[in-house]
């Protein structure tokens, strides 16, 4: 079955430290890949996406993600975390090929806490 | 920057009552979606909508649910007879064209069924 896994439910880092949030997917073919962020009381904001091409994608707020086909992973990274990055982060996938009518499948989310 | 809006932000209802959740997608978008997130669980796809008809729906989207685009701007989700397990955050999303485009999400409606 198709699935998205975010192994870490909760991550705590110190402000200024580097961050990596993990995402693994299980699909028959390489899907389109997304990272969204949800701050308390807010909707889901798109951080970045991967459709094809360069496997290292840059997003907003200084985030980047790397697609690794061999590992079926799309991990999110940031070199230096700011207190305002505290939020919940969701990895999501969309089957490529135009047959899914936009059915995004989400991981269970990773809550990021940032200590001063 | 254009954004998806949703009303109300919070709704409390009694079990068995009908609720309508409203969304205004981004104006030039053609594909519309509803997702829900039960507290502590994943965000789940409910339905996609294009050209005034449902394109795809999940197994969650049973006969108690319906969607409608009543005019040129609104996109609604109706739950005919709410159950306790319908309590969740409901997100509307829209995309420009084609199901493979980036989806932009609204802030959500928190529905509580008592």
Layout of strands and helices, then pairs:
The complex is a heterodimer of chains A (116) and B (114).
Chain A: E1 3-5, E2 10-14, E3 19-21, E4 24-26, E5 32-38, E6 44-50, E7 56-58, E8 64-68, E9 73-78, E10 87-94, E11 105-106, E12 110-115
Parallel strand pairs in A: 2-12
Antiparallel strand pairs in A: 1-4, 3-9, 5-6, 5-10, 7-8, 8-9, 10-11, 10-12
Chain B: E1 5-7, E2 10-13, E3 19-24, E4 31-37, E5 43-50, E6 53-57, E7 65-68, E8 75-79, E9 88-95, E10 104-105, E11 109-113
Parallel strand pairs in B: 2-11
Antiparallel strand pairs in B: 1-3, 3-8, 4-5, 4-9, 5-6, 7-8, 9-10, 9-11
Describe the structure in your own words:
The complex is a heterodimer of chains A (116) and B (114). Chain A has 116 residues and is mainly beta. Chain A is 0% helix and 50% strand. Chain A has strands at residues 3-5, 10-14, 19-21, 24-26, 32-38, 44-50, 56-58, 64-68, 73-78, 87-94, 105-106, 110-115. Chain A is globular and about 45 Å long. The model of chain A has no long low-confidence stretch (mean pLDDT 91). By secondary structure, chain B is mainly beta. Helices cover 0% and strands 50% of the residues of chain B. Chain B contains no helices and 11 strands. In chain B, strands 2, 4, 5, 6, 9, 10 and 11 form a 7-stranded mixed β-sheet that branches. A 4-stranded antiparallel β-sheet of chain B has the order 1-3-8-7, with no helix packed on it. In chain B, a hairpin with an 8-residue loop joins strand 9 (88-95) and strand 10. The model of chain B has no long low-confidence stretch (mean pLDDT 93).
